[in-house]
Amino acid sequence: MLSAVDQLLAEGYLETRRGSGTYVPRELPDELLAIRSDPGQPTEVHTPAGPLSMRGELMAVAWQGESWRRTPARPFRVGIPAVDRFPHDTWARIAARLRRQPAPELLIYGEPAGYRPLREAIAERLRSTRAVRCSPDDVVITSGAQQGFLLAAQLLLNPGEWAWVEEPGYPGIHAALTASGVRTAPIPVDGEGLDVTAGRRLCSKARIACVTPSHQAALGVTMSLRRRLELLEWARQADAWVLEDDYNSEFRYTGHPLASLQGLDSDGRVIYVGTLSKVMFPALRLGYVVAPAGLADAFAKSKAVVDWHAPTQLQAEVAEFITQGHLERHIRRMRTLYQHRQEVLVSEANRALGESLRVQPSAAGLHVVGWLPSGADDRQVARTASRRGVSVTPLSAMHMGTGEHRPGLLLGYACYGDADIMQAVLRLKVAFVEGLGESRS
Hints:
eight-stranded mixed sheet
């Protein structure tokens, strides 16, 4: 009997009054819960006690203007690989075996730097395919490349310091820097990549340069050897860092993948960031940082502060997938498929759209750039295309500066079959008639 009374007291169905006795309260817990969960009643919103912190304000606005990333997976959304062509049966067999009788070390807290066999597999792969100078001790597993960008910004830069970012470039890097209180200087990209001479002129106090040298994140150009050496020389003279986002380097359609910028660095100034999102599938959320000597420990400790470590069981599955050769076989198959799909898109778009959109083939990557007529509003065209069921990324969304820039669209093709591409081009043709008219009105 006593335990039942204690339970009712603990749950709020009874209350005691000192020197008086035990009573049923005026408001029972069920009544309070019913009020809060009543779908017919508007939810009362309480204003926070105070404003966000300075860093909170920066975090809250860092991703503004990125609504185009939340569009459905329909042509021609960028950044999505052919997830339906991933070897799911092979992946399932590896996962089932490891999860049927998991080793104890996969079920407890792991190393913040990441599961050792995965770091070994990644280091070996990067040495052989990307000419990256690294050992497993230099590799830190992150929750995607985006976390690597954020850790680098917060570890290496003080609030108020300057960073070079590509113009146009990847908004995720800009967001990581902005959220860390770092000021960004947009540096123009030309046919050889980021213009180092312009960077010296526009922002001589920069402490880091953020680049995508293998396949420029927006325009798709490859940074020339001359420009790479010039960038490393700037970093040495300025006592600065270079953050290399090795974006889509695996999918190169002419010759072999190019060597990394990090492999040319003899001063330990390049932080190399990569991801498995494009070569496997985006929901995996696993990336990696290759840190210069002496910095890997700091990256690992910072990773521990954020979320201790990436899921160990998942890391073990990826390690086996790589070491058994499945990843390289998948990449080879996808390279052939993506080259074909790009050819279909470029051919169909240029045939159907004519001067409305001139699409240029790309030597690498998962998207191409289509150039609009001068004076067109690429954001308006993108909105009109969305109403027609086609997702395109306006090139202006990749520009961080406020200067004039040529209007264009980014069109992803990797995830879409031939029929989907051809149908989407026809819908895009109708959207261009509407969108170009609206943008000029």
